[in-house]
Specification:
- The longest helix has 23 residues, at 26-48.
- The chain is elongated and about 80 Å long.
- The mean pLDDT is 92.
- By secondary structure, it is mainly α.
- It is built from 16 helices and no strands.
- It folds into two domains: 4-186, no CATH class; 220-309, N-utilizing Substance Protein B Homolog, Chain A (Orthogonal Bundle), CATH 1.10.940.
- 67% of the residues lie in helices and 0% in strands.
- It has helices spanning 4-21, 26-48, 50-66, 73-76, 86-92, 95-103, 112-124, 126-133, 139-152, 157-166, 174-186, 205-219, 221-229, 242-257, 263-277, 282-299.
């Protein structure tokens, strides 16, 4: 399922776009936000089928090699360990995966150059060569190859370019989706004949979390900014970037409106997000300001945590 970290990032991006564009239709912006969440889930399936396409390409190459006028011994007797990878076959035969790909019109059919590029990178990689040289054939062995493959895709510029071409909404989603895929593969056992695909959300609370966080931040943004100014009065206004203020306001909305989410979780999440989406010094600044805001909101009785959300 999509992580809360990714959902928070989706919210902050939607808020940034809405406020910076001067949009006045919150409902339209919220629909775009939820569409970006849906697209993140699509990316899970899109990436999950990537090794399937690579295997198909490898099989085509092996068949063409056998048809040479003067095929070598290796051409006629290729190492089939990769094309026989048990996990890739499970993915290829998964009804859940294939149904989603078909329904959402996903796939790699329009990008043969990318498939060829990734295949060539794969066969030149050390982890692939070591995998092909080992005689062992097991689920764990096959999983280790895919683990290395998917991790390497986070550094593949050709893939980044194509994903951006397919959907601008996939910008920055890949690392989170890769981890989601790796967790799926970790759960596979030798007795499994099908892939257990995770639901989009961990629970029914997640879509409401996204919508409520977006709405509450936007509706109360001006009042939150007035509040934030109390604790940033000694800072040079020009040093406080827009994203810092937006993160502070969104964190405030989360503190106030989600009693089941511990304060520490909210603090840690938004401080981590600021490291990637704001300036180098933002995390320290946001940490200090949020500590003061939490103390003040708690004294005012505006932060009320219940159950596992107790401070």
């Amino acid at each position: 399922m999509l992580s809360r970290r990714l959902l928070r990032i989706k919210v902050i991006k939607a808020l940034f776009a809405h406020i910076k564009s001067g949009a006045d239709n919150m409902i339209a912006s919220e629909k775009t936000l939820m569409a970006s969440v849906d697209k993140a889930y699509d990316l899970y399936f899109q990436m999950l089928t990537l090794p399937v396409e690579i295997v198909r390409y490898a099989e085509q190459r092996q068949e063409l090699a056998k048809q040479k006028k003067l095929p070598t011994f290796e051409d006629l007797h290729p190492n089939t360990k990769f094309v026989d990878n048990s996990i890739i076959r499970i993915i290829a035969n998964s009804d859940a995966v294939n149904d989603h790909v078909a329904a959402r019109k996903l796939g790699w059919g329009q990008y043969p150059d990318l498939i060829r590029t990734i295949y060539m990178q794969l066969v030149e990689s050390d982890y692939y060569k070591e995998y092909m040289q080992r005689e062992e054939r097991s689920l764990d062995e096959d999983r280790s190859l895919l683990d290395a493959f998917f991790r390497s895709m986070q550094e593949c510029e050709a893939l980044d370019d194509v994903l951006e071409e397919i959907s601008i909404l996939w910008n920055d989603d890949l690392p989170y989706i890769i981890m989601m895929i790796l967790r799926t593969l970790e759960n596979l056992r030798p007795t499994h004949t099908d892939l257990k695909v995770p639901a989009k959300f961990k629970s029914g609370e997640d879509p409401e979390f996204v919508k409520t966080l977006f709405e509450k931040t936007l509706v109360n943004y001006a009042s939150y900014q007035d509040y934030i100014e109390r604790y940033t009065a000694n800072w040079d206004v020009e040093r406080i970037v827009f994203m810092d203020n937006l993160i502070l306001a969104t964190a405030m909305a989360e503190f106030i409106n989600f009693p089941s989410i511990p304060v520490k979780v909210t603090l840690d999440e938004w401080i981590e997000i600021s490291k990637y989406y704001s300036t180098p010094g933002s995390s320290t600044f946001i940490n200090g300001v949020l500590d003061k805001i939490v103390e003040s909101l708690t004294e005012e009785g505006r932060i009320r945590k219940a159950g596992r959300g107790l401070i």
